[in-house]
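Retry 2 of 3 after timeout on previous attempt. Resubmitting structure tokens to design endpoint.
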């Protein structure tokens, strides 16, 4: 079933929650309504056990142009404009929910991603991009700094020199260069993008969801840590994964030389 709203298209099918940013006339730039709607759907995904993977993409010729500047034009405001409040209310909750979600979030960048749109994509677990897409840290062009996790993700993915170069200049980065630099998972021919993304998403929807969530948590938490701490994270995560029905099924399937049929559930007794 597809639910059409003003700013999002949402489809739930076969374990996949597909969210399409739907302001194509504005290159899917965020206004407050779209931000709050996305937060609400990510909250639903958190507690919906039938949702095993989230796919995020954009309608039309762009993925997301970041903030709709017409919605935050200082000339139209009474008194000083507090962009920090906008970040706290609209953007930080989206990034935190994507990172905290205990299931994969796949992003299909179907066109230009600029400003917060870039960093929304980088918050996701796996990013596919059409080869025609470009990533633009456009903040400095209007006297701002990267937000939505940009100053966190960029140096981790690219190193300080490239992160500063992209942020200071606002120079566009092609999808193929982004793949080459390790910023995204894969650049794909435009006409093959959604077919390849759908194949991956369906695989995730049929996979060991608990293990995926544990992998995501462990890798995200490794930055800046030490080996001893990470070994403890692995020990704890492996204990949880080893108690799931999916581990038992995976071993049976391996021994019986057949594909596994994963249910994506926790051990009996609920989440751990």
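Retry 2 succeeded. Sequence:
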């Amino acid at each position: 079933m597809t639910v059409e709203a003003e700013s999002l298209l949402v489809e739930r099918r076969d374990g996949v929650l597909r969210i399409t940013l739907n302001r194509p006339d504005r290159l899917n730039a965020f206004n407050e309504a779209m931000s709050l709607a996305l937060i609400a759907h990510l909250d639903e995904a958190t507690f919906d056990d039938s949702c095993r993977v989230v796919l995020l993409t954009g309608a039309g010729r762009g993925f997301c142009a970041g903030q709709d500047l017409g919605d935050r034009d200082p000339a139209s405001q009474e008194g000083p404009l507090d962009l920090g409040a906008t970040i706290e209310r609209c953007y930080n909750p989206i990034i935190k929910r994507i990172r905290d979600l205990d299931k994969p979030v796949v992003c299909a960048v179907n066109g230009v991603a600029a400003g917060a749109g870039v960093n929304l994509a980088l918050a996701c677990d796996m990013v596919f991009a059409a080869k025609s897409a470009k990533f633009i840290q456009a903040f400095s062009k209007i006297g701002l700094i990267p937000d939505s996790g940009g100053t966190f993700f960029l140096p981790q993915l690219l190193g300080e020199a490239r992160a500063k170069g992209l942020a200071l200049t606002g120079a566009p980065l092609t999808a193929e260069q982004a793949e080459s630099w390790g910023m995204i998972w894969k650049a794909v021919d435009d006409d093959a993008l959604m077919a390849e993304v759908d194949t991956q998403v369906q695989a995730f929807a049929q996979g060991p969801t608990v293990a995926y969530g544990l992998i995501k948590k462990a890798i995200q938490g490794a930055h800046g840590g030490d080996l001893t701490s990470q070994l403890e994270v692995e020990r704890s995560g492996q204990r949880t994964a080893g108690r799931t029905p999916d581990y038992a099924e995976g071993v049976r399937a391996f021994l019986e030389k057949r594909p596994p049929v994963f249910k994506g559930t926790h051990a009996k007794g609920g989440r751990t």
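Attempt log closed. The chain has a mean pLDDT of 94.
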